[in-house]
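<amino_acid_chain>
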Amino acid sequence: MSDPFFDPADSILINKAQNDFDRAKRAADWQFAIGALTGKNYHLVDYNEVRSRLSDTCNLPIIQKEIPIQSIIGSVSRNLDFTRTFLPKISQDKERWVKVKMANESLEGVPPIDVYQIGDVYFVLDGHHRVSVMKSYGAEFITANVRVINRNVPLSPTDSPDEIIVKVERDAFLKRTKIDQLLPDENLELKNPGEYIELLEHITVHRYFIGLDFQRDILADEAVLHWYENVYLPVVKIVRERNMLRGFPDKTETELYLWIENHKTELTKEFGDQLRTAAVAWNIQEQYDIRKTNLLKRLWKNIYIWLTPDMSDWGVRTGDWRKEFIQNDPSPFIRRMMIAVADLETDKDYLRSAIQFSKKYGAWVGIVHVVKRSTMLNSEWMDKYGAEIESMLAAEEVHGKFFPLYGNLTKILSERAFWSDLSLFKLKYRPRLKTINLADNGWNSIIMRIPGPICVIPEIIETEIRHVILAFTQSPKAREAMCFADVLSKNTGCKISVVISGKDEIRRKSAHEEVKKYFLQQNVEANYFILDGEPETAILQTAEKTIADLIIMGGYTRSLIQRIFHRSTIDKIIAVTKKPVIICK
């Protein structure tokens, strides 16, 4: 029996509404398929996520008004059920959607929706289907009961979900720090959600620690300015001097600050304390800079290392180490030392002397031992030596850590030395001067790849450095040795004897004038020995005559290939001396 009250027109309207829903659902599916390919986010913005980041809210009376539908960009509870343009995503919503459309076309109509307002955008509390239906009509406005939460955050309907979160976080950050008032010319721009929260945490932690240092409560404004001057600006200075924005065009200075500081924290877990910020920035550039990650450029750099003595495995050229890692960091010039130990049993005297030497400078020490088999890392034997080394460090009150490692010896030593201001090596095999041997048991390869100063110790190194020999030749690396001797003298009060040698009298005179002028400018006293003999003979004889504790000289002036056929002064000295030799690069 048929329903006497059934209106065939209702069936037509229902079918039309169902078809409208199906079309909207297909459009939503296509929208998300495109989003998956392009990486664009088509979700509604989660109101709760935005609300939790607001620094303040208001409680104004609810008002009813017409609002632009395009300004409705989020939801309180159903942000995953509709697209950003309010296309329905869930098939189970079909019945509800159809009923709302039918009601909307009836005489009774539908009630206003309920929304929250933040800035110039709205978040639906109740009425998602009504908004979706009105969108299907192409309507531009909808009646809404509006509760204003915050009008001051500059949100706009065209903002992406991430941009909305960032704007809200920035507003909260500025209200908490007042940095826009304290430093009106600075724009600490960040573009990713969570970064302003992280930046605020940096300031908060800094405030805590300077409170401990100053032994008083630190006012919020004082903490912000102190963080900016002593933490933020030094990092940004490195970013600017290294022109890092060119290699990271999608980053801002403040984002690079966060990246460097976070990377430094992660590296500290692996390599230990006292890492120089400039070294961390350099590391990031070498790994991720779009100008340096090109395969051909990396290949050419590896070839270039063999053809020139002026570049290390890290792309650090002669003079860069001191310029970047020392001048950009006002802390002590030897803040970290790496002590390489080849044999934990026979090298104990060397290791003990190296630890005592590091104590003189208050340096953090990384003691590196590379094993031949990975199973040795967790052996009782390794635990025993690890305990002995920890005991040595504790006895001397030296901060440091023992690193037993497995892998490629040269690569590990190069990587560990990169983070150190001075790397110490026990000389296990002296160079063989009468035979051609490219690697000399790995020595040439190691010294080529390590960028900073290297101390080669034939036996032990004295704790007190009272007298040093500086070999000077006017080469760029000899000038690095000159600078190192200068700073060493100022830090320890040691005497400097400068040896200038060679057959060319004009060159000897020119070198003498240059080094003497430099030390006079630095207010450092030095004795000068100008000799016409072979450099290695002059250096060794002067070292014995003056009872020097240490020899300081520039690194190789020939490439690795050239050194196959021509032994350097460094090799000739290391082949016979019992004194430690610092080689500057």
User: Anything to note?
Assistant: Residues 215 and 541 are 55 Å apart (CA to CA). Residues 178-293 form one domain. The chain is about 45% helix and 15% strand.
